[in-house]
Amino acid sequence: TVSDWVNSQAVLADHLNIQQWAAVIGGSLGGMQAMQWAISFPEKQRHVLIIAAAPKLSAQNIAFNEVARTAIKSDPDFHEGHYADYNAIPRQGLGLARMLGHITYLSDAAMGEKFGRELRYDAIQYGYDVDFQIESYLRYQSETFVEHFDANTYLLMTKALDYFDPAQEFGHDLAKTLASIQAKCLVVSFTSDWRFSPERSHEIVNALLSTGKEVTYAEIEAHQGHDAFLMPIPRYHEIFNSYMQRIAAECGAVA
After folding, report:
1. Active site residues
2. Distance (Å, whole) CA 248 – CA 3
3. pTM for the whole thing?
4. Over its length of 255 residues, how does the chain's per-residue pLDDT go in tens digits?
5. Are both 151 and 195 inside the same structural domain?
6. Which of these three, 129, 160, 191, is where a domain ends?
7. Domain, as residue range, for 223
8. Could you tell me if 156 and 184 lie in one domain?
9. One-character DSSP codes across the chain
10. Counted domains in the chain
């Protein structure tokens, strides 16, 4: 779970004798980890930056993850997760999972701008192979992904996403969940992100404000979808850099 990951990171921090982080920063699943850090170890960071994240997954997001997991587990080469014993990789299933996931990371506008209905060849082939550039792109993403990512890891990561719901221990009251946070917070969302929409960030911001926390919120105009948090969007970088300079100045003052 996300909580397990954060607990293991805290053990490492203790081993390295790191008493407090200047900031814990994360985007998407990393944003959930940053949030969990602030909840579980409120004295361990001065700032927390939660970017393109959510306090828990929606039913739709869980559904996408389940389809991806089913694709992997249905691959004949999956072998109940023991594919390494058979010197095999569930390439087809993992590739399909990547294709599905990648679609959810992009917005319709971003896909339209990048690919539209552009053909791969001069004319439609009227078959079941690639006709459109978007098909070629998704197949490329699929083929390259399976060479670098482990199928069992994909299953575990999507389950960690599904299970993340820190408010469950507080009667599903997000304000109570975040009440112990001591860090100053920056929350960032992107207008075209339909996987973790701005409304999900609003939930976090409103819960923080209701308990008197110091929080800065930025909603970035962007057409790239969920992947926007990985993109060099000028306004996004301006806000991020400005906040990091603030942290650096505070650290200098403390030092």
Report:
1. 28, 193, 226
2. 28
3. 0.91
4. 999 999 999 999 999 999 999 999 999 999 999 999 999 999 999 999 999 999 999 999 999 999 999 999 999 999 999 999 999 999 999 999 999 999 999 999 999 998 998 888 888 888 888 889 999 999 999 999 999 999 999 999 999 999 999 999 999 999 999 999 999 999 999 999 999 999 999 999 999 999 999 999 999 999 999 999 999 999 999 999 999 999 999 887 655
5. no
6. 160
7. 2-56+171-251
8. no
9. -HHHHHHHHHHHHHHTT---EEEEEEETHHHHHHHHHHHH-TTSEEEEEEES--SS--HHHHHHHHHHHHHHHTSTT-GGGTGGGGT---HHHHHHHHHHHHHHHS-HHHHHHHTTT-BSSSS---SSS--BHHHHHHHHHHHHHTTT--HHHHHHHHHHHHH--GGGGGTT-HHHHHTT--SEEEEEEETT-SSS-HHHHHHHHHHHHHTT--EEEEEE--SSGGGGGGS--HHHHHHHHHHHHHHHHHHHHH-
10. 2
Pick the last residue of a domain from 114, 139, 160.
160
Whether residue 166 is contained in a domain is answered as: no
Smallest Cα–Cα separation from 221: which of 208, 205, 238, 206?
238
Query: Tokens representing 100?
Result: 């599905």
SS (H, E, C) 2-15: HHHHHHHHHHHHHH
| In the block, residue with structure tokens 């095999």 | 88
Two tokens at 134?
């978007």
Do 180 and 150 lie in a common domain?
no
CATH code where residue 105 lies: 1.10.1740.110
Q: Indicate whether 27 belongs to any domain.
A: yes
Asked if 51 and 26 touch (Cβ cutoff 8 Å), the reply is: yes
Token couple for 219: 């909603």
